[in-house]
Amino acid sequence: MHRVKVRVVEDALDANNTIASANRADFDREGVTVLNLMSAPGAGKTTLLVKALPGLEGVRPGVLEGDVAGSLDADRLADVHIPVTQLNTDQGFGGECHLDANMVRSALPSLPLADLDLLVIENVGNLVCPAEFRVGEDARVMVSSVTEGEDKPLKYPLMFRACELVIINKIDLLEHVDFDLEKFLYHLEGVHPGVPHLLVSARTGEGLEAVRDYLVGLASRAGAPA
Amino acid sequence: MHRVKVRVVEDALDANNTIASANRADFDREGVTVLNLMSAPGAGKTTLLVKALPGLEGVRPGVLEGDVAGSLDADRLADVHIPVTQLNTDQGFGGECHLDANMVRSALPSLPLADLDLLVIENVGNLVCPAEFRVGEDARVMVSSVTEGEDKPLKYPLMFRACELVIINKIDLLEHVDFDLEKFLYHLEGVHPGVPHLLVSARTGEGLEAVRDYLVGLASRAGAPA
User: Fold this and answer.
1) N or C: which end of chain B has fewer CB within 10 A?
2) ipTM for the complex?
3) Chain B contacts of A155, Cβ < 8 Å?
4) Rounded to 5 degrees, what are φ and ψ at A111?
5) Backbone phi, then psi, for A174, in 5-degree steps?
6) Option in B15, B127, B176 nearest A41 (CB)
7) Who among A1, A131, A145 is closest to B15 (CB)?
8) Which of A:106-125 have CB within 8 Å of B?
């Protein structure tokens, strides 16, 4: 059984990459840079976006919101006037644990691409599968909160390797949790040497300027109109 | 592509259930009650077990530790003299995001079942897929930490429905986070009416007695030797 399963997933990945390339070409054509934002459930992706996106200088952001069920996160982003499209994965089989390129493709007609410079795809909260599936993004960033523990890079190495930036969130809680930041960074360096990180509290606003700087830089990096 | 994928997963679930029944029969034969413990990454499953299992009256506990990679959690349990078997899911395809019945079956020969009354299977940290795959357990419990936010029952309804008890962990952080406990419980009741919950801080020890009482009751509930 196990062997069959792996084989099927590999086939699915081939198809996924083909569709991801098509998505990427469409995004490039519209001059939109795309960020795939990943984390465990409750790491604070949505709060980060709600706080950081409205203040982006010269960049028109939008969000594609991936959730198993519900539209809570999309509602929070709409409240701060960020264009947002909801993508639920619960059709069919009790909830997909990640976004794949085909799901993102199905949302393309609903996205106001002509009005955007930066599209953030907020993936389903999960530290395993989203790292496997490219969706047509220019960059992948993950959010890891200090409440999750300093061992996470060792336990979910592929996720920490798949991203170009790690945002360490909820640093306002550092004094209240048993989280050894030095040890976390040591483990992170072990699984993904040289990857940069930002220390952030989306709740208090600490470190948000650096996140905005990163996003503005990202938006100018690629996705120039053809 | 999507339709094919769903079909394959359904086939895999049929096979999984067959193997889960075989596991269950083996556990019953040995008089071992089995708990499938699930949560998001970093919710505190291992800390909970490290704190609760050594104090179980009249119950000999053991742990089957599921992780994508590494043996950090198994080491922590071994440190407090709990028999523990490590099961890594990273063979093959970059890390399975859940334990399935066949993985658990492969670990059976390594488990000292004759010396156990209660086996806790600590699943991979993930709020989606583990809820789909029975592994031969008598009961399923999930841990949800207050740092994850009160919206989680609405966003991962299947997981909150799949368990018979929800342990709300890290309540020592309640005063430092924006978590509305009333709202969480309202959402929980909405997706799984009547499911009981326990308020716990594995870190400070608050509420651990109730967890131990539950585990002792669980161990006497089933798994009587044939």
Assistant:
1) C
2) 0.85
3) 41, 67-70, 72-73, 125
4) -95, 135
5) -50, -40
6) B127
7) A1
8) 124-125
**Domain ranges within chain B, ordered by starting residue:** 2-219
- Residue B53 forms contact with A (CB below 8 Å): no
For residue A140, the cross-strand partners are: A36
Residues 132-151 of B with CB under 8 A from A: 132, 145, 147-149, 151
- Checking phi first, is residue B143 left (phi over 0); if not, alpha (psi -120 to 50) or beta? beta
Whether the Cβ atoms of residue A200 and residue A168 lie closer than 8 Å to each other: yes
**Global pTM?**
0.89
For the record, the structure tokens of B225 come out as: 């030797």
Q: Is B205 helix (H, G, I), strand (E, B) or coil?
A: coil
Listed residue (A28, A26, A48) closest to A165, CA to CA: A48
Q: Indicate the helix (H) or strand (E) that contains A198.
A: strand A197-199
Paired tokens of A222: 């690629």
Please tell me the number of Cα atoms within 13 Å of A135 on its side-chain side: 29
Given the structure tokens 């890390």, which residue do they identify? Answer: B95
B12 and chain A: CB distance < 8 Å anywhere? yes
Q: Which residue from B4, B163, B161, B20 is spatially nearest to A69, judged by alpha carbons? A: B161
DSSP state of A114: G
Q: Between B69, B103, B155, which is nearest A155 by CB?
A: B69
Closest-CA residue to A72 (of A60, A62, A84): A84
CB atoms within 10 A of CB A83: 17
Closest CA to A125 of A138, A101, A144, A107: A144
Q: What share of chain B in percent tops pLDDT 70?
A: 90
- CA–CA distance, A163 with A165 (Å, rounded to integer): 6
Condensed to tens digits (0 to 9), the pLDDT of residues B23-34 reads: 999 999 999 999
Per CATH, the architecture of B2-219 is what?
3-Layer(aba) Sandwich (3.40)
pLDDT band at B6 (very low <50, low <70, confident <90, very high): very low
